[in-house]
Amino acid sequence: MKSGIKVQGERWFPSEQTFSDEMKDLWGDWYCDSEVGKLRAVLMHRPGEEIDGVTAENYETYRFRGVMDPEKARQQQDELANIYRAHGVDVYYVENQRKDRPNAYFMRDLMFMTPEGAIVCRPAIPARRGEEKAVARTLATLGVPILKTINGAGYFEGASAMWINRDTVVIGTGSRTNEAGAQQVEHELRNIGVSNIIRTEIPYGSIHLDGYMNMVDTDKMIVFPWHLGYDCAQVLMDQGIELIELTNIEEIKQGMAINLVAIEPGKVVAPAGCPETRATLERHGIEVIEVGLDEVMKGWGAVHCMTAFLKRDPV
User: Fold this and answer.
1) Is position 265 within any domain?
2) CA distance 54 to 116
3) Is 218 exposed, middle or buried (0-12, 13-18, 19+ CB in 10 A)?
4) Quick one: pLDDT at residue 87?
5) Which domain holds residue 213?
6) Cα–Cα distance between 243 and 187 in angstroms, integer?
7) Is residue 221 part of a domain?
8) How many domains does the chain have?
9) How many Cα atoms sit within 13 Å of 7 on the Cβ side?
């Protein structure tokens, strides 16, 4: 040091860049602000030995429809993953999941992706608590930022929220998401610039939003009108969203027709065996790729339930 020059303090100065500005360089290329932007990466959990333990004596404990053929269920999920890969989607898998949680392949419930990282969920039912630990570990390994882990008295499952666009998210409360959990999610979303939160009540006959509503294009949503709340519907229509009504209860409830995933605007992967739904979608200009999931659906979930988004292109 030159004589007479005094340095006061450590002179560290903060960067003025936002988290989103630095995210790609410091963390990785992860992003999601819609249900329909071009799908680039997903997180799934291939059913492991945990589903082998679902028997005629205990399947109702896990809220299953019945006992599944484990190998067939794995093959069906593999077919879905291969459809994703064929459309340029990177498929990642959760590692080291618990061996006593057969519902863990329903990944949408365990995380909710945002433009700045993932919200790690806290499932509502005891049979699913703890699945989120392996998800958090996998996200960290991949370099996906974790914005929030639902805590305190809150519980929240990812399928209780749905992106409409970068400014708008629907959050539903019901048997799988309580007000404490919803408030935590709303806080994080507003912190990253979501200005319009549509709050709605998930009815008794559905546990998640994707049981009765789902985006299929930037301005088109399929809905089961007898479960969609009027106030929510009105806000969506005011935003220019076309509501495509599906009313075949057998296809919606047993065939899980609404439980689909858009791989790009106007192109979806949907459960096979729902011909009326497919015809309706095609009349509205939506291309449908079908995948057989009858065995997987014994766990009361289909395409959307098994798919956690990690990256979508902005729309």
Assistant:
1) yes
2) 37
3) middle
4) 98
5) 29-312
6) 28
7) yes
8) 1
9) 7
Residues whose CB falls within 8 Å of the CB of residue 256, separated by 6 or more in sequence, listed in order: 271, 293, 297, 301, 302
Quick: pLDDT tens for 199-228. Answer: 999 999 899 999 999 999 999 999 999 999
CB atoms within 10 A of CB 212: 23
**C-beta of residue 133 within 8 angstroms of C-beta of residue 150:** no
- CB count in 10 Å sphere of residue 296: 29
Rounded Cα gap, residues 312 and 315, in angstroms: 9
Residue 308: give its domain's CATH number. Answer: 3.75.10.10
With H, G, I as helix, E, B as strand and everything else as coil, classify residue 221.
Answer: strand
**14 part of a folded domain:** no
pLDDT in tens, 82-98: 999 999 999 999 999 99
* Cβ-based neighbour number of residue 110 at 10 Å: 29
Contact assessment for residue 222 and residue 246, using Cβ atoms and an 8 Å cutoff: yes
pLDDT digits (tens, 9 = 90+) for 136-151: 999 999 999 999 999 9
Q: Is residue 101 part of a domain?
A: yes
Measured from the Cβ of residue 239, the count of other Cβ atoms closer than 10 Å reads 14
Between CA 239 and CA 220 the distance in angstroms is 11
Could you tell me whether strands 213-217 and 220-223 are parallel, antiparallel, or unpaired per DSSP bridges?
antiparallel
| 214 close to 162: Cβ distance less than 8 angstroms | yes
Q: In what order do the strands lie in the sheet with 308-312?
A: 90-93, 39-44, 308-312
Give which of 218, 315, 304, 224 is closest to 261, Cα–Cα.
Answer: 304
